[in-house]
Write a structure and sequence with these properties.
The chain has 429 residues and is an alpha/beta fold. It has two domains: 188 residues, D-Maltodextrin-Binding Protein, domain 2, CATH 3.40.190.10; 206 residues, D-Maltodextrin-Binding Protein, domain 2 (3-Layer(aba) Sandwich), CATH 3.40.190.10. Helix content is 47%, strand content 15%. It has 19 helices and twelve strands. The strands form three sheets. Strands 1, 2, 3, 6, 9, 10, 11 and 12 form an eight-stranded mixed sheet that branches. Strands 4-5 form a two-stranded antiparallel sheet. A two-stranded antiparallel ribbon has the order 7-8. Helix 9 crosses helix 10 and helix 18 packs antiparallel against helix 19. The N terminus is likely disordered.
């Protein structure tokens, strides 16, 4: 090797050694993003598209979505990863998991990332009802994303057949049961179409909470350390639910599956159903008949708990990862994208500004049902959320199901649920 070759090789090696750190410095910050969906499909394609668009606009950050199963699967995976020291930087978890995540020291408050006037305006733009499960003791822990309320869907053709006005849903419990009686179809000893359907697996506590609000009681305090499962309004609510199946016989007796309720509606096995507004686009795309969407019927008052998921940022992520996660969550909840997400999924757009965008105005004008859940926020309360929320809601749900199957009387079931919740929550007071 002559001197020129040696010097050239030395120069090349020097250039590489100098360039390598520069390349490392320019590598994008990796942000893993756990999103709760069990299987591939339209929603995963939408999320993948958002991540790709953000990554293109923000080359210093790389968002990598990981589809992590149900909400229950996702919280379990996030907490396991947190304990092992390598949690996903960003995750969408039920807003009701807030106290659990705080108690596990798994997430950071969002407030520290809110620095500019534009950041502050964005934070103040969310619907107040959604912040009830996002804030506690002066701090914001979650960013509302795919949020919902419970709404009533009804089959307008079934209403016509039953002699009911297809444009007028039930406004009260009394009307709800009267309509359900007319809508229930019986052939011999069999029911071919139930009048109404309220699912009781997965989120039975959520559905009962709606009925309890309507009967005049809430099921827990805002601090997450006290429940009121045996209050008179909660007992009245569960008794009404049980009676529809066991006495009035306008609702399938026993347990009704959460996941099959929309399918039952499509197949005309039920004329009305109570479910999340997150099913709105699903119903719009799959119902082969005209349908309506309404606020839930009232007893003493109207009401629904809010529901759905928030963005959460991991405490054990690096500051750069946390900042990248915050930027993505803020980007995805801008009015135009929040409106687009609502149109694509049926979830409630999380800010008033989203409903003022041209796209959302046009959508609501062509499909007024899209505004029902938003309008119901005026009557909404926080979804049940406590310390050790999974244990508390399991005790509540198990006893609700015991009443629905007839193995316990509603009052006794709720007394048992309250005793168990009291035992779990007493140390937190």
């Amino acid at each position: 090797m002559d001197r020129r070759q040696f010097l050239a090789g030395t120069a090349a090696a020097t250039t590489l050694s100098i360039a390598a750190p520069a390349i490392a410095q320019n590598a994008p910050t990796e942000v893993s993003f756990f999103y709760p969906v069990a299987v591939g499909g339209p929603v995963t394609k939408i999320i993948d598209g958002y991540a790709a668009d953000f990554n293109k606009e923000n080359p210093d950050v790389k968002i990598t979505p990981v589809y992590s199963g149900t909400y229950q699967d996702t919280i379990a995976k996030v907490l396991t990863a947190h304990k092992s020291g390598s949690p996903p930087t960003l995750s969408v978890l039920l807003s009701t998991d807030m106290f659990t995540l705080i108690d596990e020291d798994a997430i950071v408050p969002i407030d520290s990332f809110v620095k500019t006037d534009a950041d502050k305006a964005w934070m103040q733009g969310f619907f107040p009802a959604f912040m009830l499960n996002s804030q506690t003791e002066g701090k914001t822990w979650g960013i509302p994303f795919q949020r919902s309320t419970i709404v009533l869907f009804w089959n307008k053709d079934a209403f016509k057949e039953a002699g009911l006005d297809p444009e007028k849903p039930p406004q009260t419990w009394a009307e709800h049961t009267a309509f359900a009686e007319k809508l229930t179809k019986r052939e011999g000893g069999n029911v071919t179409q139930w009048g109404t359907q309220i699912p009781s697996t997965g989120f039975s506590y959520w559905l009962l909470q709606a009925l309890a609000i309507e009967a005049g009681d809430i099921v827990a305090n805002q601090k997450g350390d006290t429940t009121y499962f045996d209050k008179p309004g909660v007992v009245e609510a569960l008794q009404y639910w049980v009676d529809m199946g066991q006495k009035m016989k306008v609702h399938a007796p026993g347990i009704v599956e959460w996941g099959t309720t929309p399918k039952d509606f499509f197949e005309k096995k039920t004329a009305m159903m109570w479910t999340t507004t997150g099913n709105l686009t699903n119903v719009k795309n799959n119902a082969k008949f005209p349908f309506g969407v309404a606020m839930l019927p009232s007893q003493k008052r109207r009401g629904s708990p809010t529901g759905g998921g928030n963005f959460n940022i991991a405490k054990k992520a690096t500051p750069q990862q946390q900042e990248g996660a915050f930027r993505f969550a803020r980007w995805l909840t801008q009015p135009e994208r929040a409106a687009r997400w609502s149109v694509e999924t049926g979830y409630v757009a999380v800010s008033k500004a989203a409903y003022e965008t041209p796209a959302m105005k046009e959508y609501v004008a062509s499909f007024p049902a899209a505004a029902v859940a938003r309008d119901q926020l005026e009557f909404a309360v926080a979804e049940l959320s406590t310390h050790e929320n999974q244990r508390v809601t399991k005790a509540f749900s198990d006893n609700i199901q015991a009443a629905l199957t007839g193995s316990k009387a509603p009052a006794a079931a709720l007394k048992d649920a309250q005793a168990e919740a009291e035992r779990i929550l007493k140390p937190y007071r």
